[in-house]
Each structure stands twice: as C-alpha cells, then as structure tokens.
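Exercise 7. Given the encoded structure of a 159-residue chain, write a plausible sequence.
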C-alpha cells in the first residue's frame, strides 16, 4: 500500500470519530526509520484558538480507536509502530486550511532555492496563501514566495 493510500485510509477510518470528539486530522506520515516503520497520526483540536490543546488522553483515545480499526481492516502488510501525537507548537503548515488558520502568525519558511537572496525566513508574518504563492512580511518587507520554492513552513515558537 502506498503512503498516499495509507493517508487516505487513515482519514476514512477516523474522520467521523475525530469529528465526534472535537478533533481533526492534521497529518499522517508512514515512514521507515532504520529497520522499523512508523505510522504517525497527528491530531489537533478543531478550535485551538479557544485555548484547548491536545492532551495525552486525546492521543490515547485516538490511538486505541485507530489501533482497533487497523486490526480489523489489516490494510498494512509490514509491521509498524503506531504513534498518535500533537503537531506541536512548531507545527508544519501543510494543507491550505492550515495556512488560512494561521494568517497573521509568525512562521519560519525554508526554501529550496533563494528568493531575495535568502533560503530561510525566521519569524516572518504569514500574510496570505494562494495555490501558487505564499506571502510573508519579513523585516518589514512584503515578499511573495512561489510555492514550488517553499520546502517547509512551520509556526515560529517565540518565548
């Protein structure tokens, strides 16, 4: 089963359960590390702005549910470790709705190739996001980054 198919399968298996519990699926990763495979399922609150964060109890609840469903379906051939976790404070923005939710927040952007002479932007403000462009404000300057040059966008962690 391909990684993309595993992602879709996980979405199908747990979307209703997550919705019933006020949670949402942030991301799914299925990757090999050393000799072992890991299925990581990242969950978040539907409305994290309200001050509620993912707890270990939430992760355990989803892990038990998903483990049971995966045992029933048995869709993944190789052995793997299931991990259910929060995307963290420095969460990676992946889907368009992630970018939409965090407009106006500081982000760290890594690029494949330089724009404006830089490949990294730290604590830039996320201004806008389209299908083709990520718009940030860095050092007081509005910068449009072509999405095909963006390797990774994470929320900045500022203390």
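Solution.
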């Amino acid at each position: 089963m391909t990684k993309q198919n595993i992602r879709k399968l996980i979405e199908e298996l747990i979307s209703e359960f997550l919705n019933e519990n006020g949670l949402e699926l942030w991301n799914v990763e299925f990757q090999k590390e050393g000799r072992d495979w890991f299925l990581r399922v990242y969950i978040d609150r539907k409305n994290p702005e309200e001050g509620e964060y993912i707890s270990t109890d939430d992760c355990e609840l989803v892990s038990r549910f998903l483990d049971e469903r995966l045992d029933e379906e048995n869709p993944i051939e190789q052995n793997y470790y299931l991990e259910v976790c929060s995307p963290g404070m420095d969460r990676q923005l992946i889907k368009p709705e992630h970018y939409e939710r965090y407009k106006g927040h500081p982000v760290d952007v890594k690029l494949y190739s330089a724009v404006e002479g830089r490949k990294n932007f730290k604590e830039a403000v996320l201004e806008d996001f389209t299908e083709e462009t990520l718009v940030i404000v860095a050092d007081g300057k509005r910068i449009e980054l072509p999405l095909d040059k963006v390797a990774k966008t994470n929320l900045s962690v500022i203390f």
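Remark. The chain is about 25% helix and 40% strand. Students should compare their own answers with the one above.
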